[in-house]
Predict the 3D structure of the following.
Amino acid sequence: AARMFLRLLSDVWWRAANPKWRRMTCSQRSTSSTTEPHPVSLPAQAQVVICGGGIMGTSVAYHLSKMGWTDIVLLEQGRLAAGTTRFCAGIVSTARHMSIELKMADYSNKLYRQLEQETGVKTGYMKTGSISLAQTQDRLISLKRIASSLNVMGIPCEIITPKQVAQLHPLINIHDLVGAMYVPEDALVSSANVSLALATAASWNGVQIHERTSVSHVSVQKGRVTAVETDRGQIQCQYFVNCAGQWAYELGHSGEEPVNIPLHACEHFYLLTHPLKEPLASNLPTIVDPDGRIYIRNWQGGILSGGFEKNPKPLFTEGRNQLEIHNLQEDWDHFEPLLSALLRRMPDLEALQIMQLVNCPESFTPDMRCIMGESPTVRGYFVLAGMNSAGISYGGGAGKYLAEWMVNGYPSENVWPLDLKRFGALQSSRTFLRHRVMEVMPLMCDLKVPRWDFQTGRQLRTSPLYDRLDAQGARWMEKHGFERVKYFVPPGKDLLDLDQSKTFYKPDWFDIVGSEVKCCKEAVCVIDMSSFTKFEISSTGDEALESLQYLFSNDLDVPVGHVVHTGMLNEKGGYENDCSIARLSKRSFFMISPTDQQVHCWAWLKNRLPDDSNLTMEDVTWKYTALNLIGPRAVDVLSELSYAPVTPEHFPSLFCKEMSVGYANGIRVMSITHTGEPGFMLYIPIEYALHVYNEVMNMGQKYGIRNAGYYALRSLRIEKFFAFWGQDLDAFTTPMECGREFQVKLEKGMQFVGQEALLEQKQNGVYKRFTMFILEDHDTDMDLWPWWGEPIFRNGRYVGKTTSSAYSYSLERHVCLGFVQHFDEKTGEELVVTTDFINQGEYEIDIGGQRFQAKAKLYPFSSLFTHRRRKDEEELSGYQRE
Amino acid sequence: FYLTPPQVNSILKANEYSFKVPEFDGKNVSSVLGFDSNQLPANAPIEDRRSAATCLQTRGMLLGVFDGHAGCACAQAVSERLFYYIAVSLLPHETLLEIENAVESGRALLPILQWHKHPNDYFSKEASKLYFNSLRTYWQELIDLNSGETTDVKEALINAFKRLDNDISLEAQVGDPNSFLNYLVLRVAFSGATACVAHVDGVDLHIANTGDSRAMLGVQEEDGSWSAVNLSYDHNAQNEHEVERVKMEHPKSEEKSLVKQDRLLGLLMPFRAFGDVKFKWSIELQKRVVESGPDQLNDNEYTKFIPPNYHTPPYLTAEPEVIYHKLRPQDKFLVLATDGLWETMHRQDVARIVGEYLTGVHHQQPIAVGGYKVTLGQMHGLLTERRARISSVFEDQNAATHLIRHAVGNNEFGTVDHERLSKMLSLPEELARMYRDDITIIVVQFNSHVIGACQNEE
C-alpha cells in the first residue's frame, strides 16, 4: 500500500509540477504505465550530467541550480526516488559522531523544514524530536559526547533521565535504561517526497530530468569526462556526477577508465504496522535504541521499526542491476532479534497488527562514512554515494557540499573524512567490500570507543617484517589497508584481555605504551613506519625543482642531502598535504607523506605538474620499508652498523644520506624521527628489510633496544606539540594558524600556491590558532579520557574543538591539541586570534559533559626536554604524520 | 539415571567423522563436496564397520557401510579389503603391470587408495601381509586375463565382491601357520557381513549392495521440499524377488525349508552376505575345517552347528546387486546406512531431516504475513519457536550425527525428545541390543554446481 501511494504521488507531482510535460504525456501515462514513451529527447550536450534520481542526485541538482549552474541533465534509470530513497525510513537525525556529518545533517534538517513552502510539494516534514536510549553507562558516555558537540553547534539537545523519557513517549519500557539523549529538533519526512520536491525546485531552475534513461558508461578523454552514453543516446558534458547509490560501484567500473567507488549493499529490514487502537500522535519522538539495535518511529498511527542486526546479509556482490528495487524477500527469521528488541522496548505493541516487513537494500562503505568528491583519475567525474543508511539525514548537506565543490573547486567545509580520494583501488575488491560491510553495518549500533579498529579486510598491505613483529607480540591497527603496530604486548601479559579492551577511560595498554615511551626517551626504540606514502619526483633539467617550488610553500632549493618539511597548500593557503622532501640530487626529490595521502597527493600533483616528458613522478611506497630509530642511543646503534660517523657534528638534523647498514647498501637514512626525539628514519629497499631489522635489533641489544608502536609515537609527538595532517591539519588550516610560519618561505623568489592567502594572513592575523592544552585537574585513572572533538571553553565560552589528544608520560598529564577561535560576544562574528587572546584566558575542555581545567600553550615545553636535546637538534619544524 | 545434554552429545559425537573434498584454486571440481559419517554401537563391541577412500589411480570415491553378524571379524576384514579389490578391478592393464613390476623389483608401490578414516577405524596389522598376497594374486590373474576392454564399473564391483568373498573362503580352508592368523581367517569366514558400497565418479553413481543395508538419494524438488529415492534393494525376506531368486537356485523339495520366519534356513536375516561359510560350504568341508582348526573354534557351539535342512549349498552369495544412477543437480546427498537406521526411520523422514540440516535455516519454509492478520506478539512467538527448533540442528556439526540423534531420540511427533534420547543412550550394554541395533551412517553431499556443469557440457 505504501508503495502504491508513492507511485500515485509521483504521478500527481509530475502533473502539478511540470505542466508542459503533462500536456504531452499525461494521456499515455494514465492509460499505460509500462510502455511510456519518452517525452522529450535527450539534449546533445550539457554542462553537467547527474546519474541517479534519488535523494543524492536531486539534492546535487537542486544545489547546483541554486548556485547558478543550470545546464544540467539528471538521468534516472527507473522513476525518480524509486530506489533506496523510496524505502528509507525518513528519519532526519542530527545525532552524529563526526562534526562534518553533524553539520550535513543539521543543514539537511533546516533545508527540509522549509522545502514544502519553497516548492509546494508536500514533504511530510514533521518535527518530532528524537530520543537515543542508553542501556549502559558506556552508552550514556557516548551520548554525552555527542550532546556536547550538538550543544556547541547550537543544536538544542539534552541528556535526560529514564523518567523524562517516559514522559516524552508513552509506550517505552524504561526499566533497563540508565539515561537518554533528547534532540527536540529532529524530524521525520517522506523521503521520496523530499526528493521529488528537490527535483521540482531544480527543474524550475532549468534542470532537465529524464526518467527511464540508463547510463551505460562515461566517456573519458585525456583524463577528463567528455560524454555520457545512455540507452537513449549520447550527451556531451564537462561534468558527470555519479549518484547511483548501490549501483555506483558498478557504474564506476563500466567505463574504460575505472573509477573506484568502494561501497556494497546490504539488506535492511524494517517493519510497518497497522495503526494502534488509539493511533499514535504524528509528532511522537523517534526512538533510537542502539543497545537493542533498533529505531522506532511513528508511521500513520502505527509504527515503523527497523534496525541493524549483528549478522547482516550483503547482496548484489556479483553486481546485479535492477530498474527499480523490487521488494526483496521478507525474512522474518532474520528479523527476529530486532522484533524481540522492539517488544522489549515497547511491550504494549504485542497486540499490534503487522502490515509488512520491508526489505530495502542500503549501501555501506568500508569506513562507515559516505563517499563524495572528484575521482582521482578522471577529472570532472564526481561521486556522491554510500550513505550507510543515513541518506536522508545527509542528503541536503551532502548535495550542498558537492555542488560547492563543483562550482568553487572546494566545499565550504573540510570534507576530507568523506573524500573519495581517501580510498584507492585497494579498497575496491568485491570480496573485501563484502566482508567489510558485514562488519560496518552492525557497527552502526555498536559503541564507538576511542581507538577501535576494523577486524575484517585486514592484512592486505603489510611490511616485510610483519611476521617478525607479530611473533614478538605486536598488536595491529590498519591505515589505508596497511597494518601498523599499535604496541607490543610483553610476554606473559593476558593477551585476550588487551584485545577486547573497550573503554572511554584509561585503557589496559597504558603501562605497555608507557614503557615504550620511556625506552624512546632513555635508550632506543624501533618503529616500523613502512606505510608512509613515498614518491620520487625527478627530471632531466630543472623542471622538478621549478614545479615543486611552485607547489610547496617551503624553499626546496636547498643543497643536496637536505630534508625540508613543507606544506602542500591550496590557493587559500590550507594544507592539502604535509610532507617532508629530501633532495636526493640536483634534479630528484624523495617525498614522504602520510599513509592515507597516497591517492589524494598523487592526484593533486598529477593535476598540477606540467605535462612534460622530462618530468617523472613515481609512487615508490611499496619499494621501501621504513624503520624509525628513536632515542638517544640511536646514534650509537647506527654508527656501529655503518662504520660511518653519524654524530650530530657529522650528521646534523634534517639531513639525508645514502649509506650502508650491516651488509645492505643504499639505505636512505634521514635524521628525523617525526617525534622531536633524536634518531633516524631508515628507508630500506624491501629485500634488505629483514636483514637491516635483524642487524639493528642485534646491535641494539647492548643499548637496550626494543620494538615500539604508533601509540608511543603518538604520545611523543603530541607532548611535543607536533600536528599531523588528516587530524589536526586539513585543507582549511594554514601554516600561519598552527605556528609554522618558519616552514613557509614567502620570499623564496618565486610564486607558490597559497602565497597570497598567507601574505594576507601575515598582515591581518589569523582567525584560529592551533593551541596545546595541558589538562590540570584530570585524574588519569578515574576520569574519562579525552579523544578528539571535545569542545574547548575560554572563560566559559565555546571557542573551538580539540583535534587530537594523548597522555604525556613525561608531563604525567593529558595533552590535547586543538584550534581556538575568537567569536565576538555579541554578534558571534569571528575575530582575529592574537597571542594575547590565547594567553589571557581561563580554559576548560569538555569531556563527555564534564569540564576540566586546561592550561593553554602556543609553544612546546622546550625546557622540559632541553637537557636531552642535542645542540643542533632543531627539529622545531614540528611535524608528524600518522 | 539421567544424561545431561552435553553427556548425550559426547556419546553421539564420539565416532563422528567429516571429510571435505579439498579445493584447488578456490574451486572444488569434484561432484562430491564431502561426507559426514558416524556410528552408534548397540552391540559391545560394535559389529558395524564403515569405510571411505578416494581412488588415486582412477577417478572416483568409494564409500561403504558394513553390517557384521556373529561377531565383527568379517565386517572388519571386508571394510579393510573390499575397496582394494574394487580399485584393482577398475585399474587399466598398464597400471596393473606397473604395480606388479614395482612389487617384483621391490620398488615403492603406487598408492591406490587414500583412506578417510576416523581414529577408531583400525586396520589389522597382523593380517596385512596375508591380505596383500591374496590381492596380488587377484591382480596377477587380471593381468593374465587382460581382455583389452575398458573396465566397466558395474562389472568391476561385482567381480571385486565375489573375489573377496572367495578369498575369504579360501584363506580359511588353507589356514595359516601362524596360529593367531589361522584363528583370524577362520573367524572372518565363519562370521558374516553385509556391504553397501557407493562409487561416485563425476555424475556416475554406482551402488553395489549385498544384504540389508541401504543406499538412499536425497532429492530436492523444485518447491524446495525433499524426497527420497532408493538406490538399493534389501536382500531379505521382505524382498519378493530375492525370495524368488533363492528358491530358483535350489530344488523344489527345499522350497518350504529355505525361508522360515523371514530368515534364510530359519537362521539368517540377510539373504546375501560376505563370509558365513556355514551357509556356503559343504557339510564335509565345514566339519574338516572345524576339526583341524584351533580349539577355540572347536569349542564354539555356533560354528559346529550345521544349519537344518542343509542339502544343496551354497545357500548364500556375496554377489552384489549394482544400481547405476546418473546424478542430476537436484540430487543433493546420498545416505548409506546399516539397517539400524532404517528400522527406526522412514526414508522420507531421513531425506527431510538431512535435507533441512544440510541447507540450514535458509530453506526452512519462510514465513510470509501475506494478507493474514498477525500481531507482533504472535509473530514473535512463532519466530522464537522456530529458532528453538533450528538450534537443535546447530548442535550437530555432522549430518550423520544429526540423523542418529533423530533416529534414537524421536518422539511420536517427529522431534527430538531429550528425555528419550537420554534413556536410550544410558541403557546398560546387555539391554541396548534389545532396543536398538548398531547404527552406521554415511551422508555424502554432492556438488550441484559441478553436476550441473557436467550436464550442460553434454
